[in-house]
Amino acid sequence: MDGGSFAMMRSLRGRLFVGLTAIILLTGAVGGALAYRWAYSEAIETQDSVLIQIGSFAMSASIRQSRPVTGIDAEAEVAVVELGEAPRGSADDQRLWGLKDGLHNDVYHGQPVRVLLRTRPDASRFAVTQRTEIRTEIAGDMAVRTLLPIAALVPCLLLMTAFVIARSFRPMLHLAGDLDASRVDDIGELPVTGAPSELQPFLGSINGLLGRMRVMMDQQRRFIADAAHELRTPVTALSLQAENLASVDMPAETRDRLDALKSGMRRTKHLLEQLLALARQDAAPSPVSARVELDKIAKGIVSDLLPEAAARNIDLGFAVVEAVAVNGDPLSLMSAIRNLVENAIKFTPNGGAVDLGIYREDGMSVIQIEDTGPGIPPQDLARVSEPFFRGGEPSGEGAGLGLSIVKRIVDHATGSVLFENVAGAGRSGLRVTVRLPAADR
Ligand SMILES: Nc1ncnc2c1ncn2[C@@H]1O[C@H](COP(=O)(O)OP(=O)(O)O)[C@@H](O)[C@H]1O
Ligand SMILES: [Mg+2]
């Protein structure tokens, strides 16, 4: 058994199909054989009764011929042979005369025949003959014709079986597809009503499991949010104290250490804020939904970040800007775009460029951010929006949470975000494309 047929026997569909096919073929073969045998013997009997009818017909003296008649029925080759009142003629005729009245198998003119002997009231005898070969041929033809309906029925049955099996299993495949399509962070219940009754217990168990997973994930999210929230206060107090220290007179060496401490505090605060933002997005995405003018938001962000870009001689600006709007939470959307532009500036070397494009395409509002940095290694592209992912050689202050926050925000707004490397024409860099359903003008 090769791998394919192994897999087939492991699947219920395969087993059903193989089993039903075997049953149909077996039924067809047995039914066909029985029908053939039955029709064959029926045809032989019918031909005997034809001989008897012709015999009764030839009984009347007026039909009597002085010489043998042949070819009464050209196709069936039935012949009436007059044998006279005493044995005479050829050896064959004489032997036939010797047979009793009734049906016999004999040989006539060197060929096997079925023969009916009759004696008329005036003692003259005659034989009705038919070649055995013709009889079996006719019977065979008739029997084969009874096979035709069966032969036509078997392929039809096979087709219908395959169709019914495929249809019956479709709900299962649909369910699997639904499960596959559901996002890890958004596990809804599988629909139980309308599913085949055999599947209902499974669906119930799966839904129970999904429910427990949801509760667990909620607890985890809440724990992260609470932890980040609880940590914020002491960290803020610590950085305030570090700031206060700065006003105290101290040696240059100590001041260096203090600066390092302050920047450490800043990073920690940033990390906590991002964690909190991520946990909030996860736990309860902002219910606010307003009309958000993306081009205005983007312009605000660009003018905020211009000094930072200028300090590093980065050309930050718009390649295209159209007036587009979406429905969503303005603060979340702003933080998503800001995260992307900040990344682009952060990863672009001094003297590079960051271009924004804002436009409408196929009913979607599109924001594109393109930089001239190193881009992201292809094997990491799919993972950049995982929490804490910072690539093979982490650099800078980030914690690797920015893009996961962006992804949650965009997902919640039923949009998509695509990361791709732009290469060729002497340039490299990352292009991030965010698509959001456009709001009506
Ligand atoms: N514009 C970009 N160019 C190159 N790499 C980038 C860019 N944006 C993000 N990345 C990569 O993706 C990782 C994750 O980004 P992000 O989630 O914003 O984390 P962070 O900025 O805190 O490091 C970054 O550490 C970096 O390796
Ligand atoms: Mg970032």
From TrEMBL:
<feature type="transmembrane region" description="Helical">
    <location>
        <begin position="147"/>
        <end position="166"/>
    </location>
</feature>
<feature type="domain" description="Histidine kinase">
    <location>
        <begin position="226"/>
        <end position="440"/>
    </location>
</feature>
<dbReference type="GO" id="GO:0000155">
    <property type="term" value="F:phosphorelay sensor kinase activity"/>
</dbReference>
<dbReference type="InterPro" id="IPR036890">
    <property type="entry name" value="HATPase_C_sf"/>
</dbReference>
<protein>
    <recommendedName>
        <fullName>histidine kinase</fullName>
        <ecNumber>2.7.13.3</ecNumber>
    </recommendedName>
</protein>
<dbReference type="InterPro" id="IPR005467">
    <property type="entry name" value="His_kinase_dom"/>
</dbReference>
<keyword id="KW-0418">Kinase</keyword>
<dbReference type="InterPro" id="IPR050428">
    <property type="entry name" value="TCS_sensor_his_kinase"/>
</dbReference>
<dbReference type="Pfam" id="PF02518">
    <property type="entry name" value="HATPase_c"/>
</dbReference>
<keyword id="KW-0597">Phosphoprotein</keyword>
<dbReference type="InterPro" id="IPR003594">
    <property type="entry name" value="HATPase_dom"/>
</dbReference>
<keyword id="KW-0812">Transmembrane</keyword>
<keyword id="KW-0808">Transferase</keyword>
<dbReference type="GO" id="GO:0005886">
    <property type="term" value="C:plasma membrane"/>
</dbReference>
<keyword id="KW-0472">Membrane</keyword>
<dbReference type="InterPro" id="IPR003661">
    <property type="entry name" value="HisK_dim/P_dom"/>
</dbReference>
<dbReference type="InterPro" id="IPR036097">
    <property type="entry name" value="HisK_dim/P_sf"/>
</dbReference>
<dbReference type="Pfam" id="PF00512">
    <property type="entry name" value="HisKA"/>
</dbReference>
<keyword id="KW-0902">Two-component regulatory system</keyword>
<dbReference type="InterPro" id="IPR004358">
    <property type="entry name" value="Sig_transdc_His_kin-like_C"/>
</dbReference>
<keyword id="KW-1133">Transmembrane helix</keyword>
